[in-house]
Amino acid sequence: MKTKLFFTLLCISMISFGQEKLPFYDGFDYSVAYSTDTPPVALNTLLDSNTQTGQGSWTENDYGSTKNPFLITSPFSSYTGLPAFTGNAIEIVGGTNDPLLYFEEVSEDDGVNLYASFMIKVTNISDAVSDTAKDYFIALSTSGTGGYGAALYFSRISGTNTYNLGINESNTSGEAVIYSDTAFTAGVDEIFVVIKYEFNKTGNSVAHLFINPTISGTTEPSATINTLSLALDDEANKSSFTALKINANSNAKTPNIAIDEVRIGTSWVDVTSEPSTASINQNEIVNFNIYPNPAKNYINIDSKNEKILSVDIINILGKTVISKKDFNSNTIDIRNLSKGVYFLKMQNKKNNIVTKRLIID
User: Fold this and answer.
1) What is the CATH number of domain 285-360?
2) Fewest CB atoms less than 10 Å from the CB: which of 8, 113, 174, 182?
3) What would the pLDDT profile of 181-207 be if each residue is shown by its tens digit?
4) CA torsion, points 304, 345, 88, 81, in degrees to nearest 10?
5) Are 93 and 69 in contact (CB under 8 A)?
6) CA-CA distance, 128 to 108, in Å (whole number)?
7) Distance of CA 233 to CAs 117, 200, 236, Å?
8) With respect to CATH, is domain 24-281 assigned 3.40.50.2000?
9) How much is the CA Rg of the chain, to the nearest whole Å?
10) Is the dihedral of CA 269, 270, 271, 277 positive or negative?
11) Computed from CA positions of residues 294, 141, 25, 345, in that sequence, does the dihedral angle turn out positive or negative?
12) Do the two domains 24-281 and 285-360 of this chain adopt the same fold?
């Protein structure tokens, strides 16, 4: 065990509120709690459907009533070549809310590729999971609501307790998924995975999947599998990404999966090495609440006596509709705003920024 340690903007020129800078790392260093049942049941969740907020920078486009993914004591201990693990982990338990992590946009014009890495373990394939279940459970996203790429797939092997991992490039309907031949066993195998999207403006973009790769300094090894064999007509190239999505489709398609040690970056080193202090999830530093949420006329902000330099309310088109500098009050008048979904962004005196979803009804 380890030691403790919605809608994004649809316009192309997205602003960078609520987006993590890259490279990014999250070891899920959030509090866990268990019931006294036998066996114990995890109680804390990554997303809170009641307050419509998430731990750290994690959020959701449409908070449902499902109380998961759960925060759990991590089942992972280490992986050769990776920095020491920190924090806890999350576990998907069948169909659930779909956590999203927004980061600064990476596009084909930047001259780089996009990588994400994580530890995964299918902890249980329940009786509810179809004998031939196949679905993606992690993917890069162009918007958070679609445009998926380098999607990581689970495929159950004919009703057994084993499965394969696969990848496809753009997750478009009918596009082929390339699977690894390696069979993994639920409840046993701990797997380090890297997904990579290789941009190509004029030809065939390629998604790569590295399964338990050897980490040797800055050298990027060959991928376990990739989508290079797919014809250009069979895919839909993506020109940019700005989110990581954890997808828990349904009880029939999604097994129980533990996920930990999430890294996102634009190089192999970014997703296999120690993150710099600046790249660690800074949203945890600013601890504040907004209420009521949903709201009608006013919102109150509780910043736990921390000095707030600015407060901005931004609509889903990226326009700042309210901006407060040298914020000294704990109340904001929102009577002039239309009903809908907004983001509230706050910045403290240390220049740390945190963003939360606000609903006005």
Assistant:
1) 2.60.40.1930
2) 174
3) 999 999 999 999 999 999 988 878 899
4) -130
5) yes
6) 40
7) 28, 14, 8
8) no
9) 20
10) positive
11) negative
12) no
